């Protein structure tokens, strides 16, 4: 099981802030493909990966990264702090 | 070094005075304060979302880098989340160093990194609706200065 978190417009498009899912995805990109194939709201949120960032266990990462050992995946748009 | 991620307002004067007083041996203290702007006119509120846990960790990492690179005596970052109004302070950084060059450079570095590497997202609420603030290419390009 893996915790998947969504922030900002990704959260709004998917319609929930977090969920716990069972997945056999090897990489982040596999997980994105798996979710996108499930429902349109995921496909809409993940339509343009260049507009998204991903963090694995609260560290910025990338879509080719492996998920082995990861407990928490977060998807969000580029950050706008400051 | 102190990192505070909070919804509560903060007092710039009080924070600056306390920081400067505690920074023993500092010859220079630089502060920067970010304020909510009403760019389009008619801003009802700005909502700031963040990623609890990662936010504190990311800011701490960035601040530690600044402390080590410019040999800072102390550093402070306060960043708010939640609902803010135009004119309210969103965040502040303070840096203390032996000389001004290091304090200025470290504060500038902290601001560039907080802008695009600390997990906050701003949403502007106006009478005509709500819109997420988009990150700009300049924000990302600013990081290459360092």
Question: Please, could you describe this protein's structure?
Answer:
The complex is a heterodimer of chains A (82) and B (146). By secondary structure, chain A is α+β, with helices and mostly antiparallel strands. Chain A has 3 helices and 5 strands. Chain A has a single domain, classed as Beta-grasp domain (Ubiquitin-like (UB roll)). Chain A has helices at residues 8-14, 28-38, 40-45; strands at residues 2-6, 18-21, 53-56, 59-61, 72-76. In chain A, strands 2-1-5-3-4 form a 5-stranded mixed sheet. In chain A, strand 3 (53-56) and strand 4 (59-61) form a beta hairpin. Chain B has a single domain (2-145), classed as Alpha-Beta Complex (Aldehyde Oxidoreductase, domain 3). The radius of gyration of chain B is 16 Å and the shape is globular. Helices cover 35% and strands 35% of the residues of chain B. By secondary structure, chain B is an alpha+beta fold. Chain B has a 4-stranded mixed sheet with strand order 1-4-6-2, with helices on both faces. Chain B has a 4-stranded antiparallel sheet with strand order 5-3-7-8, with no helix packed on it. The A-B interface holds A 5, 7-9, 11, 55, 58-60, 74, 76-82 and B 34, 49, 51, 53-54, 57-58, 79, 90-91, 111, 114-123, 132-135, 139-140.
């Amino acid at each position: 099981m893996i915790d998947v978190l969504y922030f900002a417009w990704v959260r709004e498009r998917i319609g929930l802030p977090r969920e716990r899912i069972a997945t056999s995805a090897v990489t982040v990109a596999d997980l994105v493909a798996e979710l996108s194939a499930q429902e349109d709201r995921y496909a809409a949120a993940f339509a343009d990966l260049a507009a998204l960032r991903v963090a694995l266990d609260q560290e910025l990462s990338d879509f080719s990264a492996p998920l082995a050992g990861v407990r928490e995946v977060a998807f969000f748009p580029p950050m706008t702090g400051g | 070094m102190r990192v505070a991620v909070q919804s509560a307002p903060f007092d710039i004067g009080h924070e600056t005075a306390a920081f400067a007083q505690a920074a023993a041996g500092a010859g220079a203290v630089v502060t920067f304060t970010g304020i909510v702007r009403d760019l389009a006119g008619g801003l009802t509120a700005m909502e700031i979302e963040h990623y609890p846990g990662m936010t504190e960790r990311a800011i701490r990492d960035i601040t530690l880098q600044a402390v080590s690179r410019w040999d800072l005596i102390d550093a402070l970052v306060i960043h708010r989340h939640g609902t803010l109004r135009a004119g309210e302070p969103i965040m502040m950084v303070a840096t203390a160093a032996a000389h001004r060059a290091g304090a200025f450079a470290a504060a500038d570095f902290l601001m560039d990194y907080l802008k695009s590497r600390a997990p906050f997202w701003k949403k502007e609420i106006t009478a005509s609706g709500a819109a997420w603030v988009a990150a700009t290419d300049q924000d990302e390009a600013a990081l290459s200065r360092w």
